[in-house]
Design a protein that fits this description.
single chain, about 60% helix, cell cycle, DNA-binding transcription factor activity, RNA polymerase II-specific, 3-stranded antiparallel β-sheet, E2F/DP family winged-helix DNA-binding domain-containing protein, about 5% strand, DNA-binding, E2F_WHTH_DNA-bd_dom
Length: about 375
Amino acid sequence: MSSSLHTEDSQWKNPSIYSRKDKSLGLLCSNFLKLCDREGEDSTIGLDNAADQLGLCSVFSSTSVERRRIYDIVNILESVGVLSRKAKNQYRWNGYSAISKAVDLLKKEGLKDLSTVSSTCHNVSNVIACNNSDVKEKGEGKTAGSNKIDNRKEKSLMILAQNFVKLFHCSDVDLISLDKAASTLLGDVHDPMAMKTKTRRLYDIANVFVSLNLIEKIRSPDNGKPVFRWIAWNENPRSGSLAAAKSDDSTRRTFGAEITNITPKRYRDDSSSDLMSNGLKRLKVAKDDELKDKKQEISAEQLNERGTKDFVFGPFGPSSLPRSGISGKENLKQIQNWEDLASKYHPQYQNKAANELFAHYVEAWESWQVEAANELHKQHEH
DNA sequence: TTATCCCGCCAGATC
DNA sequence: GATCTGGCGGGATAA
């Protein structure tokens, strides 16, 4: 069993060389996912069993350490619906197909929260004030014990992971750095220690999401700092789907659009979602400021739109797009445009899987181009 | 030097 | 009381 799971070569070739990468949460998550996926949908995953099997993959780790990490992983996977808890030690594997539904739900929830706060708080400082009073109101009438439980729940990795997903889907931003996400999720709390803790947790979440191929880490074009971008989700996100990226833009807001266009019904659920809404609002304002300085930046949305309207897809294009009959001259011009875009925006994926996938697309594109050129040549000869 | 994140302590939850 | 669960932050490693 362990033979088929991915382990870093260095560890097996020379167990005396310790590498942090061998123990990464992302790697452990990948192995865990392989383990679960093989069982098939609706199967039950026992944590003991999983910890034992994954423990075998790592020369350096004790099973208890792996087990602790598995708790982190299952919490995060639960946040996007891949797993659901059945009983103590027992989780149900829902499969990757459950992700889109979970993400849709989170998106709706996030937009709902956003509209709620927007309708009652007219600027950022008011939003913060609303948030504080809401939290206070909710605190009143509760026992110290239940407040403590709420506080614990609010800080759980699962809630944090869900809020992280909402950040991508309910705000205008495409690229989110972890410290920005942390400060957004913290709201008006400016404690450096809390910020550090939140960022640490976000690193864990991001690693698992990268393993799931839900997000990818790239370098910010502005400052070269690492930022994360939502890739896509489909039936099997681990197979990756750059073509499906931004597939659900219809419900996303465009840059600079107002957020207050949804029903002004006050909605209260829990303090974490209110904090989330305020955070999103804050993130939007920050983004608007940022945009004033960088109007020349081409958004991913624009690229996408251009891709669907102006370009003819090859055999690897999205199946949903109609094949249009465009003249050879236009076609060549468009190919040229594609090449310009590709050279200009050639992505440097940190995510190995995304990188490989991109390489595959480039390879496919090149072979198709050669094929098309030959075809054109033949037509000219006739 | 800064970013990243492994590790395991320990407290609360559950059995 | 035992075991499970998971928040948390120190500090090591990678970049």
